[in-house]
Design brief:
With 394 residues, the chain is an alpha+beta fold. It folds into 3 domains: 117 residues, conserved putative lor/sdh protein from methanococcus maripaludis s2 fold; 94 residues, Beta Barrel (Elongation Factor Tu (Ef-tu), domain 3), CATH 2.40.30.170; 88 residues. The chain contains 6 helices and 24 strands.
Length: 394
């Protein structure tokens, strides 16, 4: 073996001691978990940075907070939809020409507000029919008065033995027929007036237009009608109104988790449109059958929407749990993903960092819960962790 002169050792040591501080800090001392440099250890080696190291200034170190993390949590994708009890599809009450459209798409309407006007021959026919029914009632009343008078006169004559009993029976039969005719005419008049009432028309007033009114308070979300067109199909909606003050969130809960959800319970809703926000909803319905293809059960939750910020077809997810436990919660940028696991850098002492493998729970709005190897109050690197990882590998 070639022997190196002691003078060369002294020269190398002198060069290292007189090197600038930034040069010495860029090559930190590497220690194992026991603190003995260069020895093998099961844990990742520690990285020590001097106080004046420029790398240390780039790191962001923060204590780990504690958070309440649910136990037996159910998480399922969800979709916002209409509350079917708050949706009204406006149909034609009768055929005719659309003379006026009084609202536009997106307008807010109140219950009973006029939406459109229709000129309808059927409406004119109903008014005319009502007039005929009025006349029929008057005619039946007159016939009844005559039959009543004839019956009383015949009965008086029978008491004085001026007519036969068969004449009294015939008069009584005519009286009963007159009463039945009046009842029939009165029923026809009631039917006609009810029909006019449904159409919003007044009896005896000609040239009236049928006014279609809103059945509920809400917004016009769909429209398929234009002024001037003639419509004969009374089964096709002209427009759709929806009250969006309350919406439904429908989710597909896996079969093995449905036991944790019950009607009336509260769930939390997270929507893609509002990242980081959590909304409350209440379970109103759980389907009675299981989808044989996805092995999921449909759950519907009612969610208040006073500011109308939730729109049908928005996508998100629901969360539901029965109990909570305290766990450390870290931000996503603190984690380092490697092929053999998930890690964070923990500051063991000022300037000394160790890479620690952790076990995480599903992410939440407030951060990522950690199940193992981390405690609340531990100081971890939340910014610049990849710099330490690169230094550790080199």
């Amino acid at each position: 073996m070639k022997r190196i002169a002691p003078s060369k050792f002294r020269t190398a040591a002198l060069l290292l001691c007189t090197a600038p501080a930034w040069f010495r800090g860029a090559f930190p001392a590497v220690q194992n978990s026991e603190g003995t440099p260069g020895s093998a250890a099961e844990k990742a080696p520690r990285i020590a940075l001097s106080a004046d190291s420029p790398l240390r200034q780039q790191l962001k170190v923060e204590p780990v907070p504690a958070g309440r993390v649910p136990v037996h949590e159910v998480v399922a994708p969800g979709r916002v939809g209409f509350d079917i009890g708050r949706v009204s599809r406006v149909l034609l009450p009768t055929t005719g020409r659309i003379s006026k459209v009084l609202v536009r798409l997106g307008d807010a309407v109140s219950s009973g507000q006029p939406l459109l006007e229709i000129e309808s021959p059927d409406a004119e026919g109903a008014i005319a029919e009502c007039r005929q029914a009025d006349a029929a009632v008057l005619q039946a009343q007159s016939a009844l008065h005559k039959a009543q008078a004839d019956y009383e006169r015949t009965r008086d004559l029978l008491e004085h033995k001026a007519v036969a009993r068969k004449d009294l029976l015939a008069s009584e039969n005519e009286l009963n027929q007159a009463r039945a005719s009046l009842e029939q005419a009165s029923a026809g008049l009631i039917h006609c007036r009810r029909q006019l009432e449904i159409l919003g028309l007044r009896p005896g007033v000609p040239d009236q237009r049928v006014v279609v009114r809103a059945a509920l308070r809400g917004k016009v979300i769909d429209m398929a009608v234009t002024e001037g067109e003639y419509r004969s199909d009374t089964s096709t909606p002209l427009m759709t109104l929806a009250d969006l003050s309350v919406v439904w969130v429908t989710s597909e809960v896996p079969e093995n988790a449905i036991r944790f959800v019950e009607p009336g319970e509260r769930v939390q809703v997270e929507l893609v449109a509002f990242p980081g926000e959590v909304f409350d909803a209440r379970v109103t319905r759980i389907a009675d059958t299981v989808d044989p293809k996805t092995r999921t059960i449909q759950v519907q939750a009612e969610m208040p929407n006073p500011q109308r910020k939730f729109r049908p077809e928005m996508f998100g997810r629901i969360r539901h749990h029965h109990a909570e436990q305290s766990l450390p919660v870290i931000p996503a940028q603190a984690m380092i993903q490697t092929p053999d696991g998930t890690y964070v850098f923990v500051e063991r002492s000022p300037g000394v960092f160790e890479r620690v493998r952790i076990q995480t729970e599903p992410p939440r709005a407030e951060g990522i819960p950690v199940r193992r190897n981390l405690s609340p109050g531990d100081r971890i690197v939340t910014g610049g962790a990849m710099l330490l990882l690169g230094m550790e590998r080199h």
